[in-house]
Amino acid sequence: MINQGVNRTTQFLAWLGSFLLILLFGYLSWQGYQQTPSPQLLLRWLVAFLASELILLLLVREIDCLFQRLLQQAQQAEQLQQQLASRQNNNYQQALSTLNNIATSFDPDWRKQLRQALQVAADYLQLPIAIVSKIEQQDYQVLVHSAPEGLLQDGSHFALGNTYCSLTLARGTVLAIDQMSQSQHAQHPCFKTFALESYIGSAIQVDGKPFGTVSFSSATARATPFSQLECDFVSLLARWIGSSIERRQYLEAQVDAAQRLKKIASQLPGMVFQFQLKPDGSSSFPYCSEGIRDIYQLTPEQVKDDASAVFALIHPDDLAAVQDSVAASAASLSLWKTDYRVRRQDGEYIWVTGRSMPEQQPDGSVLWHGFISDLTERKRVERLKDEFVSTVSHELRTPLTAISGAIGLLHGQVFGALPEQARQMTELAQANVKKLQLLINDLLDMDKLIAGKMQFDMQPQPLLPIIQAALRDNQSYAQQYQVSYQLDADPTDIWVRVDNMRLQQVLTNLLSNAAKFSPPQAVVKVVLQQQDDTALIRVIDSGCGISDDFKPYIFSKFSQADSSDSKTKGGTGLGLAISQQLMHKMQGNIGFHSEQGKGSEFYLLLPVERITEHSEEIL
Predict the structure, then answer these.
(1) Which GO CC terms are listed, alphabetically (predicted)?
(2) Orientation of helix 500-516 relative to helix 575-585, angle to 10°
(3) Measured between alpha carbons, how far is 95 from 98 in angstroms, rounded to an integer?
(4) Is 0.85 surpassed by the pTM of this model?
(5) What is the pLDDT of residues 536-582, one digit of tens each?
(6) Domain spanning 105-252: which superfamily?
């Protein structure tokens, strides 16, 4: 296309020149002929014209040759430039590909990985000295380097001001200088000390904060200035190095945390674990401390991918309850807490207790974090304690009954009138004997409940008369505290299947507690309602309420909100624990709502019996 344009131009010049020569010589020959008419004169002008035309043609030819040579040189230069750009692009792509391979491979020696990346980049940039530095204030540390042997060492320190990297940090972007001696930084201390002529570098950021630099340099000047492609390459490399250092620091922090956790877990009694339940029903222990050897006599590796070995060791009578508790915890993401037995290699069983908190995972599985500890010794001590309390209670009941009878005779003045001081002493003794009898009866009741020896006479019967009887029997007790009871009953007859005496025992405990903790002149409300197939009994007082710290222990044995030696309310601390056991035995439940300073409400829940089922039996 360009050649055709040049040819057309030269042809146009040739024709234009010829035409002008014809006009010029034609005019001159005509003027001469007018002055001296002679054929020889015309012949001379014709010869002059032909000579001029020849010279014109030679001149146009030379111009055309010159244009052709210039065009050829331009094309050669363009080809060379394209070849250079193609070679640079190929080198760039090859360097990126090699860096990508280094980045995607995992090498535990992160310094080795960075050094390989520096070598690839140094070859691409044709600069022999490559450094990744860590900069803290004015201290420049060579973190990793690639350079001729003996020139540098990892860990070397320099003053930041004596390095070109001080200029890089001040610039904030890639700094590239192809000939330092001819630049504005020719007086920089680094050039005076190390005589590095060419330099390119970029800042490295880790977690969004300045970390150091990556730089490349040489003692010789560059033949060509740094291209934009090379600057972009160094900038990209700096970002990759920053990400690599971030990732390495994160992994090191994880390893450090895991090591600390392992050390802490090794000092804890029992087993610290993570238990995972997957959507397909399979389960595993992704993490277990070495304590699993003490609990299950297994290793962490044996249960890491499959938890079936653990479930195989659970007592057959406890397995279903454990599986149900796990399923319930997963469904509601609530605390998992249970006690169960585990078989040892010698065939003996130990008691263990587990507690963990579930967490929903993105893949739909549930992951628990918790611990399991050996409960055998505590169970043994509790059993011995219960046996001791039971034995002592039985042994004390007979002599205490005799003492109570004797004191009652003395206090009743059967053997004659007593002095006032003696009468006060017998009255005090009789009151304390009654407290002891109450404690022993409660202890024996709790012992029977735990052992499953308490007898229940479960009969279908109306609920309202039982409540009325309990209110009547406890009215005198409430009057001691200047408290009264108020019944609000659902007009519908509500029938339940219960043991009359045991339900009255539960109601007595709730009514006496409400009276004790209510202020004088207060009214304790007793509400009877039916909610669907459930009977609800509510005992509401306006007393001091229950503190948040004591609420978890409200149904524990021997638990009392006032545990000082000078308790003013009395009680054994067993009433609510016994009441809870009695309600469970009668297929019911007991609970409470309370706010400190605003009173409490205890409630009983019992399944309702249909009257028609027992009409013939009643008649």
Answers:
(1) plasma membrane
(2) 150
(3) 5
(4) no
(5) 999 999 988 888 888 888 887 766 655 443 345 555 677 888 888 88
(6) GAF domain (3.30.450.40)
